Amino acid sequence: MIRNIVFDMGNVLIRFDPDSFMDRVGITDPEDRKIVNRELFASVEWALMDMGLETEDTFEPKVLARIPNRLREKVRELLRNWAYPRQYIPGMPELVQRLKNAGYGIYLLSNASVGQPAYWNQMPVSKIFDGTLVSAFVKTVKPCPAIYRLFTEEFKLEEAECVFIDDAPINVAAAVACGWQGIVFHGDPAELEEKLRTLGVRC
């Protein structure tokens, strides 16, 4: 029986779209966008921030050294403020609230940097959640099995009573391998709600 609904954050609850972030700060040249995506969002250091082995402070001088001077201020802005203003995936806050009202435990399990609480805690939807576990603070990331074990231990939950929702199939597969239920999110809250109902979840 499912008692706990566990959500990923990026592209499940809030939008993570580097192209839209670059639009916002006025990086429009196609070659400049390739540089910024490669050296910032698709960099090893970005992944290391999720692992808690880099921070925005330690990453900043490295990324700025790798890009042209004309882009440095915009890249600094992206590194520090990509999550502002925050954009929800339409319909997801309402679904989370309905699940909370139905009596389910609501949790977040996210690969994110130590900067995550600064923007997450300002989001109204965060107040609905019973607990959050962010990869950088435990030095391991999805889909490593350790992070799923740490999660259930931290919140004293039974694996079989948890369903994990993530947009990355490999992360869902890892949760399933750890004894959870799992759903891959394809951007459609109505589809997600239907899949939850097939697991016996009241939405």
List keywords for this structure.
alpha/beta, 2 domains, 5 strands, globular
Can you describe this structure?
This protein has helices at residues 18-25, 30-41, 44-50, 56-65, 72-81, 92-101, 116-120, 135-138, 145-155, 169-177, 189-198, and strands spanning 4-7, 105-110, 131-134, 162-166, 181-184. With 203 residues, it is α/β, with parallel strands linked by helices. α4 (56-65) runs antiparallel to α5. It starts with a strand and ends in a 5-residue tail after the last helix.
Can you write the helix and strand succession as a string?
EHHHHHHEHEHHEHEH
Strand order of the largest sheet: 3-2-1-4-5
Q: Separation of termini?
A: 14 Å
**SS class:** alpha/beta
Q: What portion of residues is helical?
A: 40-55%
CATH class type of the largest domain: Alpha Beta
The geometry reads as: globular
How is the CATH topology of the largest domain named? Rossmann fold
Main pleated-sheet profile = 5 strands, parallel
